């Protein structure tokens, strides 16, 4: 498999990782992943395109919002980078086979669930049932941490 192909799939993973961050932030709250545009959760300043480049913008901005300087959690570049690395690894493993798109979708779903669980101690039912192929009626309520607990097993 050519290294250019692997790099392209990895770059696609960066973009998907950026979208996963939006989903992780909004889906547990029942908000749309499409609208409104991404904005700083503290000062509500919309995030400009130049500040929305996966991993790079986080580093160039000094890990802080351009407008109010509130720290941007490391979860954002971590999810983006991990998605890119896993996508590139899957491109290496599966090449240009018809298995690759399914593997990428499954990986993205698992990453979204893992990030939701790590940040919110919550596994959104919609994501879980779509990944497992179960019908929505079989959806169980989201897992929540015990009262006063840390959410760890
Ligand atoms: Zn801000």
Give a quick precis of the structure.
It is built from five helices and no strands. The protein is mostly helical and 153 residues long.
Question: If you had to describe this structure to a student in words, what would you say it looks like?
Answer:
- The protein is mainly alpha-helical and 153 residues long.
- The chain contains 5 helices and no strands.
- It has helices at 3-26, 56-60, 75-94, 99-120, 125-132.
- Helix 1 (3-26) crosses helix 3, helix 1 runs parallel beside helix 4 (99-120) and helix 3 runs antiparallel to helix 4.
- The longest helix has 24 residues, at 3-26.
- It starts with a helix and ends in a 21-residue tail after the last helix.
- Mean pLDDT is 86; it is low at 135-140.
- Zinc ion binds next to loops.
Listing every helix as H and every strand as E from the N terminus to the C terminus, the arrangement reads HHHHH
Structural class: mainly alpha
User: Percent range for helical residues?
Assistant: 40-55%
Number of domains: 1
The outline comes out as: globular
Radius of gyration, in angstroms, nearest whole number: 17 Å
What ligand molecules are bound, each kind once?
zinc ion
Low-confidence stretches: 135-140
What attributes characterize this protein structure?
globular, binds zinc ion, single chain, 0% strand, mainly alpha, 153 residues
Indicate the topology.
Elements: H1 3-26, H2 56-60, H3 75-94, H4 99-120, H5 125-132
Helix pairs in contact: 1-3, 1-4, 3-4
The structure holds zinc ion.
Zinc ion is lined by residues 40, 42-43, 45, 65, 67-68, 70.
């Amino acid at each position: 498999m050519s290294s250019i192909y692997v790099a392209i799939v990895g770059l696609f993973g960066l973009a998907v990782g950026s979208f996963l961050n939006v989903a992780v932030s909004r889906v547990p709250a029942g908000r749309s992943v499409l609208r409104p545009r991404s904005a700083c959760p503290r000062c509500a300043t919309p995030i400009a395109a130049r500040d929305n480049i996966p991993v790079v913008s986080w580093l160039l901005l000094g890990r802080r919002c351009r407008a109010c300087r509130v720290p941007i959690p490391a979860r954002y570049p971590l999810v983006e980078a991990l998605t890119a690395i896993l996508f590139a690894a899957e491109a290496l493993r599966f090449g240009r086979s018809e298995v690759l798109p399914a593997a990428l979708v499954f990986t993205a779903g698992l990453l979204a669930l893992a990030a939701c669980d790590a940040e919110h101690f919550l596994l959104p039912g919609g994501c879980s049932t779509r990944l497992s192929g179960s019908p929505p009626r079989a959806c169980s309520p989201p897992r929540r941490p015990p009262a006063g607990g840390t959410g760890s097993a």
